[in-house]
């Protein structure tokens, strides 16, 4: 009975934390006049969930969640906007290409092949994009390193990649069936799902449930290897 009660309490704390992060994302997006506050809010959400996952004491109160988020948001005002807007422009271009191919008759096998290739490119791009926010929240490294690490993880951690895609489908279906879930928890839900999956199955040094490297050597070892550890 005690174990059930503790599990229920932990679940409630997670739900509350995700809700608080969603509210913080909305407030800080408005603080940045939407255009300047949206991507720093995404970066802050990733950083907040990362901090919570690796914290020995995960019994966070509302104030602690908000404080961690706000500090991360202020630190990300410049870099997150450069990172996020660049990703969005590329993502919209890929999505537009896929739309054009599907709504214009290219004929036969060629059309199907091009459409399939663009769909694959879109899936790979958005998977790498989701991973890249997690990687940059975990490492203070240049953009090329972050992108290379994210791409390596996409290929080297197939279970993690498949789970990310599966959770994307599940969350999208849940939002379509119960719009209230989106209204209450918003984008904080998929961000938390990404961080939880990477923490459990990504093997990301510094944010892994089965850390194999010592904490002091984690960043240095991965930076030297330039890839995902085995």
Structural summary, described in words:
- This is DUF624 domain-containing protein.
- Keywords: Membrane, Transmembrane, Transmembrane helix.
- Pfam families: DUF624.
- It contains 10 helices and no strands.
- With about 230 residues, it is mostly helical.
- The protein has one domain (about 1-225).
- It is globular and about 60 Å long.
- The mean pLDDT is about 90.
Give a short overview.
The protein is built from ten helices and no strands. The protein has helices at 2-31, 38-54, 62-75, 79-102, 108-138, 143-156, 158-177, 179-185, 188-202, 218-225.
Q: Which terms would index this structure?
A:
10 helices, DUF624, 78% helix, 230 residues, membrane, mainly alpha, transmembrane, transmembrane helix, DUF624 domain-containing protein
